[in-house]
Amino acid sequence: MELNRLQRSFLEYTAALFREGFLDSQFSQLYQLQDESNPEFVVEVVSLFFDDSERLINDLSRALDQTNVDFKKIDAHVHQLKGSSSSIGAQRVKNSCVSFRNFCEVQNIEGCLSCLQQVQQEYLLIKNKLEALFQLEKQIVAAGGAINTVEWML
Amino acid sequence: MGMAASDSQFHVLAVDDSLIDRKLIERLLKTSSYIVTTVDSGSKALEFLGWHEDDRRNTDETSVSPQNHQEVEVNLVITDYCMPEMTGYDLLKKIKESSSLRNIPVVIMSSENVPSRINRCLEEGAEEFFLKPVRLSDVNKLKPHLMKGKKQEIHESTPPQSPPSQLPTPQSSPPQSQLQQPPQPQEQQQQPSQSSNNKRKGMDEGLSSPDRTRPRYNGLTMVSN
């Protein structure tokens, strides 16, 4: 049956994301806050994260491109990105922010540039994966099913 | 039935400069059936609370004009620590120094686990310190503080009466006890469904303690930084 197949794919896909460290348990917490009165909550919060991240990554590129690099400002941006990625459970993005802040602290430009690249990569990866996940969810709902996150709790 | 206050809804003011975190905390609080107002800065929080510059606890409290009239009743303030211009700590201080606002319980949230920061906030009068990301299990800890706040209010505005047996005795807390889990006999009633994903926290975040509120000090020693 189509619905079963879709739901199985959903579980397998998310299990892999957790297993490979792309997502942590905070992501499953988001689903606990979603219900009939707020059926789009997860998508909404994640969209905010996408917008926020893109803005911050752009700001970071520009800041690192200056002749006189303002490490305090860069650290502030990274701190923000670390916060928002942590809030939605985007673990790899969060971890790359941690390294980034270490390089800021010692004012190491090369290190910062390399971290920025890593942050960007991790961001693009998680963005693709979450978009694929939401597509799958749409299909499940369209096939008359509901998203089952109970098994994430195991 | 008993105290009418316990039946009415609680109003929480949430302060955070991050839009995502505001959205999250709002949902967390609404899920727990609280009325929520969110603002993005400490100054807006003070404005909402009706705070005025001269409204200090130390000044003459018998002053004539109660200009500090609180428009809306707020039963708890939950604020992020790291905010530009005014930190959560600054906000906490202003609230506790204000004769009209000091009884409002304040909870601090932070993404950073810094013992000296936590102690500072608790010493200044914060009820709890939550590590971000804040979860339902954290929000469940707010109930006793909200009850205490309401009860105090009633107590101040009505003649003393013997408390009904239904409510837990408010804690007269020496500073030490704030570092421990307060007893929560009432939690059973209104607990939203919680999954048993506590196990995950240890693995993911490398925090050995399941209690993510703050590091456990068992009330005896304070880590000094």
TrEMBL record, chain A:
Occurrences of domain HPt (ranges): 38-143
One Pfam family here: Hpt
Keywords: Cytokinin signaling pathway, Cytoplasm, Nucleus, Phosphoprotein, Two-component regulatory system
In-chain residues carrying the UniProt-annotated modification Phosphohistidine: H79
GO MF term set: histidine phosphotransfer kinase activity; protein histidine kinase binding
Family annotation (InterPro entries): AHP1-5/YPD1, HPT_dom_sf, Sig_transdc_His_kin_Hpt_dom
Origin superkingdom: Eukaryota
Entry function: Functions as a two-component phosphorelay mediators between cytokinin sensor histidine kinases and response regulators (B-type ARRs). Plays an important role in propagating cytokinin signal transduction.
Protein name (database record): Histidine-containing phosphotransfer protein
TrEMBL record, chain B:
Alphabetized SMART domains for the sequence: REC
Keyword Transcription regulation: yes
Pfam families hit by this protein: Response_reg (PF00072)
PROSITE patterns: RESPONSE_REGULATORY (PS50110)
Alphabetical keyword list: Cytokinin signaling pathway, Phosphoprotein, Transcription, Transcription regulation, Two-component regulatory system
Presence of keyword Ribosomal protein: no
Gene3D superfamilies attached to this UniProt entry: 3.40.50.2300
Sequence ranges assigned to domain Response regulatory in this UniProt record: 11-147
Residue stretches of biased makeup (Low complexity): 174-196
Sequence ranges of Pro residues compositional bias: 160-173
Biological processes per GO annotation: cytokinin-activated signaling pathway; phosphorelay signal transduction system
UniProt modified residues of type 4-aspartylphosphate: D80
Disordered as annotated region, ranges: 147-225
Function (record text): Functions as a response regulator involved in His-to-Asp phosphorelay signal transduction system. Phosphorylation of the Asp residue in the receiver domain activates the ability of the protein to promote the transcription of target genes. Type-A response regulators seem to act as negative regulators of the cytokinin signaling.
UniProt family annotation: Belongs to the ARR family. Type-A subfamily.
Protein name (Swiss-Prot/TrEMBL): Two-component response regulator ARR9
Provenance organism: Abeliophyllum distichum
